[in-house]
Inverse folding.
């Protein structure tokens, strides 16, 4: 072919050699340094995660969620389409469960803070510090839960539900 350049070889088994007189194309492949992405969750440069500080900084999100939930409930009352209605119900239930889990988490945190304060008070009084074990924290958490249920009058209902759950677990294991 006359339009293709002929590459020369030193011998017939050698690879073809390109001419250096050939013009470089305008479009060039430029390779830059490798970009590294950092995940702030695992990177030391981002600092450590402080949950209390996070709650203080982003406390407004809780209010926004409650507003959004009330809007969804209003929309649910107006909605007549069964598919959309089911979606709204699922969304509201999801929000309720996340709200409850957040409350449980904050209550657990409060118990931890109280136990730490007691330990520090003991140290100030000259006594040996006693740091509460996780099992004891769980027991006090359960105690608080039952007191709360007693106030609301829902102890029997809760116990019946627990019995039912345990029966289901037993059936699965057998």
């Amino acid at each position: 072919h006359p339009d293709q350049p002929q590459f020369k070889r030193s011998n017939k088994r050698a690879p073809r050699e390109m001419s250096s007189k050939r013009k470089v194309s305008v479009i060039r492949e430029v390779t830059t340094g490798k970009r590294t992405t950092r995940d702030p969750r695992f990177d030391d440069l981002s600092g450590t995660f402080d949950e209390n500080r996070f709650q203080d900084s982003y406390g407004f999100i809780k209010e926004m969620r409650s507003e959004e939930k009330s809007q969804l409930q209003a929309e649910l009352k107006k909605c007549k389409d069964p598919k959309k209605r089911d979606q709204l119900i699922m969304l509201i239930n999801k929000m309720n469960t996340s709200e409850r889990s957040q409350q449980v988490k904050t209550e657990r945190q409060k118990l931890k803070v109280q136990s730490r304060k007691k330990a520090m008070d003991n140290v100030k009084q000259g006594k040996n510090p006693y740091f509460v074990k996780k099992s004891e924290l769980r027991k006090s958490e359960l105690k608080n839960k039952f007191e709360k249920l007693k106030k609301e009058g829902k102890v029997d209902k809760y116990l019946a539900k627990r019995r039912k759950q345990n029966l289901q677990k037993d059936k699965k294991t057998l």
About this structure: The longest helix spans residues 82-124. The chain is about 60% helix and 0% strand.
